């Protein structure tokens, strides 16, 4: 059975943008789409220790309505096989359980329900840290985008592994892959003269990291044009700026060097929170290694 693409919904209009993205991705990958809603009893004003009577509100009923609306939205993608799942319980943990067999886990960025009320907080953090598969965070539609997938590379194992995912996405979309490495001068303590850096050397080192990270992968998708760019600047503004126009921004779950905070700490959390387009967070997977 094919691994599904799983999308979490909470009943908000914003979550439907994630459904659109996930359904389109399922069509590109020819995979089934599973729409998941996690109902927590406190969302529906039912005491955790209460035994609901026949007339009491039930989270299952509200959750089914959420799923029906999302399934109807996904129905616009006629070639996609769509299924739904309703879970009741702790939202991050239950969501991860529902996505245990997923090829991708897709979430929106804003909403009113429990899922996205915590999104970019505990839910997204736990999903990106613990999901077996890549996690894609989708903001509301912001208009036309350049035909490219952008990947941030810092020379770490995680960012190198993300190259395979980014190339695959570029091939599926028939667009170019743009690899970016950012570097900046570390701040000096007060009263200490700033260290002098050789800009040309920093750029050469960045170009080397990019070449090494991309080595071997281009042969896997020879039809994908690949461009490389070394940028002077902090990782957060560089990545956020790239997200304004790219079809998809791809980052590794943990990083070093040019993207020193991409370990789901402050840097990556800020990127996910402020990104202007879809962002995929890819964890290192031993099975994904460069050809040859």
TrEMBL record:
Where in the numbering of this chain does the UspA domain appear?
1-139, 149-283
Q: Which Pfam families match?
A: Usp
Stored InterPro entries: Rossmann-like_a/b/a_fold (IPR014729), Universal_stress_UspA (IPR006015), UspA (IPR006016)
Identify its protein family.
Belongs to the universal stress protein A family.
What is the protein name stated in its UniProt record? Nucleotide-binding universal stress UspA family protein
Source organism of this protein record: Actinomadura viridis
